[in-house]
Fold this protein.
Amino acid sequence: MADSPITSVKFMQFLTKGLCGDCMKTVSNRIRSLHPDSTRDEHAANFLKMCHNDSQSHENHESCGENSLGSLRDGDMAPEEELEEGEIRRSSRWSDSRVDVKVHKRPRAMLGDDEMEMEYSRLMDVRRKKNFVCLERIRGKTVNILEGLELHNGVFSSAEQRTIVDFVYSLQKMGKRGRLMERTYSEPTKWMRGKGRVTIQFGCCYNYATDKKGNPPGILRREVVDPIPHLLKVIIRRLVRWHVLPPSCVPDSCIINIYEEGDCIPPHIDNHDFVRPFCTVSFLSECDILFGSSLKIVGPGEFSGSSCISLPVGSVLVLKGNGADVAKHCVPSVPAKR
C-alpha cells in the first residue's frame, strides 16, 4: 500500500529529529532519491521544505541534537506565544523594501503528530487562485491586466481573525489617545461619503499626497513612525512560510486601513517606493476590489472598471506584474465595517 503524504512527513520527522537544517535536507534528499515515484509525495516534500527553511537554516552542525525541527506554532495568533526576534537589518534604500531577518529560537520539544498533521492539513486547505484574466487593449496590444494577481483564501482561521481584529482595535484606541507617533496614526475628518478612513502605518512613513511642506507622494525617509508590532511580524512569517509571499521579499512595512460603512479607496497604482509583490489582507467583512487600466468615478465612493474581484474575510490578495503596475485598483464604498 502506498504511503500517504502525512505518513511520509512522520517518517521524515523521525529520521531527522535533532538535526540541523542542512543535515535534514541531506537526509530527506537521499531518502527521496530511493523512490523513483517520489512525485506522489510532492505535497509532503514541499511541506518538509517549508519546515526546513523556516526552522534551523541558520544553525550549524554543532547544534544538531540540541534543537528539534522547530515549532510550527510560531505562526499561531495566540498572544501568549513567544518568539525571540533576532536581528533585523533594514536595507539602506526604502525603495528596496526588504530586510534580512534572523529568527533565533529557543530549543523546543518536537511537535506531536497531531500538531504536525493539523499544520499540514491547514496548509493544504488554503485555496489559491492565480489564473485571473481580463484582457484590454493598451497601446495597440492585447494585455492581461490581471497577470500576477494571486488570491489565497483561508490563510487565517476565525479565531486568528478575531485576535488580529481585537489587536487592531487596541491600536486604534492608542492612536486616539496620542500613544502612537504622530505620523503613525491618521483619522481625517469625514467631509463627504467615502472620505476619511482611519490609517495606521508601521515601518515607514508613506505620504499619500503632496503635503504642506511640498513633499511629493511616496515614502518620507526623514519622517519616523512606530516599528512593526510583534503580532504583525507573526502574520508576515505565516505569509512567507505558507508560500503566500516569497522569502526573497519579506515585508518591512504595513499600512492598516480601518473602513467604516461607506468608506472607499479611490483608483490608484501603488507607489513604486514599495517593492513588488505586496499584499492586502481582509478582515471583518467581505468587499470588492475593482481593476482596470482606466477606472471611472461614477459618484462619491462609486467606481466602474473592467474586472471585479471579491475579497473574502481571512484572504490575502497578492499584487505583482500587470496586476500591480498596469491596472489601477480601487475599493468602492464598503457595505460594512472592515
